[in-house]
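sry for the spam today, last one i promise. struct tokens for design, 309 residues
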């Protein structure tokens, strides 16, 4: 017998939901609403000045002297996201496939692959800053055993951009690994056995069987990784490069590792400290994430399934 409703009154249901609703209102909806309001003002955090200017902040983002830096940050964010998401998913899937093939023997490898995700961005950034130190870093020491080339990772714009990408992939590899491992463990072994009988090799089974069957999980991970690159990469960037260094033209309008989320921070708390201008950027960023979330939920039901559905 199925109980449709265990509670006699809706008041009790609302009471149980109240703590969650309170947290959402205080730490999500109210700050978001304040950001929307602030985006119509020119506001200086340190001087305490505030003046209504309408849509001027939004106009300055796309037209005028401040627009090139914003366009560069947007392009860098999209390129950065693509270079983090797709290699990260591929590496996570390959590692999960190898771990699943080991069975119980692969437990120690699973633990080692998961722990980077448990590290805070501060710890992960510190680890990479030591590893890629141009003088005492382990990476340059290893390179020095084979050649005389000693790259200055954080001084070269393109190497710094590459370093942040590597750090973000490494930091998030455990997240992708766990989901792919769970998906692979739900794949019936009879499918692989049928492939072997038909003469399919390792690579053919991977591309013809594994990839299609984990497609729904990949679809889910693309969106969660996109949220990761848009927001959670902030900590690594702040510790490793602080948004810099500046690149050659036409990449000289902003630091090469200045993504949209980091530009919101620098424009709001550094330089002119125009909180209204930063708020306008955050509104556009919220709109982009809202659109991505809508696409995920709208099409996700058709793409994602669980268990034996």
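last one done:
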């Amino acid at each position: 017998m199925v109980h449709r409703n265990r509670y006699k009154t809706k008041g009790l249901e609302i009471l149980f939901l109240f703590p969650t609703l309170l947290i959402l209102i205080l730490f999500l909806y109210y700050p978001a609403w304040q950001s929307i309001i602030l985006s119509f003002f020119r506001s200086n955090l340190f001087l305490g000045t505030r003046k209504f200017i309408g849509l001027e902040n939004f106009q300055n983002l796309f037209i005028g002297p401040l627009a090139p830096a914003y366009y560069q940050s947007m392009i860098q964010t999209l390129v950065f996201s693509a270079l983090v998401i797709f290699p990260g998913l591929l590496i996570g899937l390959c590692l999960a496939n190898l771990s699943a093939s080991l069975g119980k023997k692969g437990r120690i490898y699973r633990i080692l692959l998961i722990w980077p995700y448990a590290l805070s961005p501060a710890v992960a950034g510190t680890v990479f800053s030591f590893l890629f130190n141009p003088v005492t870093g382990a990476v340059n020491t290893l390179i020095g055993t084979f050649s005389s080339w000693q790259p200055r990772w954080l001084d070269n714009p393109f190497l710094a951009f590459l370093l942040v990408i590597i750090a973000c992939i490494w930091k998030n590899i455990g997240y992708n690994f766990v989901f792919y491992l769970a998906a692979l463990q739900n794949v019936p072994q009879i499918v692989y056995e049928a492939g072997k009988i038909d003469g399919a090799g390792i690579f053919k089974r991977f591309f013809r069987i594994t990839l299609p069957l984990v497609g729904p999980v990949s679809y889910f991970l693309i969106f969660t990784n996109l949220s990761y690159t848009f927001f959670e990469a902030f900590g690594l960037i702040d510790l490793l490069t602080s948004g810099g260094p500046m690149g050659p033209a036409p990449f000289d309008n902003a630091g090469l590792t200045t993504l949209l989320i980091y530009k919101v921070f620098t424009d709001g708390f550094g330089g002119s400290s125009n909180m209204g201008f930063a708020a306008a950027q955050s509104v556009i960023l919220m709109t982009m994430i809202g659109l991505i979330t809508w696409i995920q939920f709208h099409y996700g039901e058709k793409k994602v399934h669980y268990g034996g559905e």
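The longest strand covers residues 41-43. ok im logging off now
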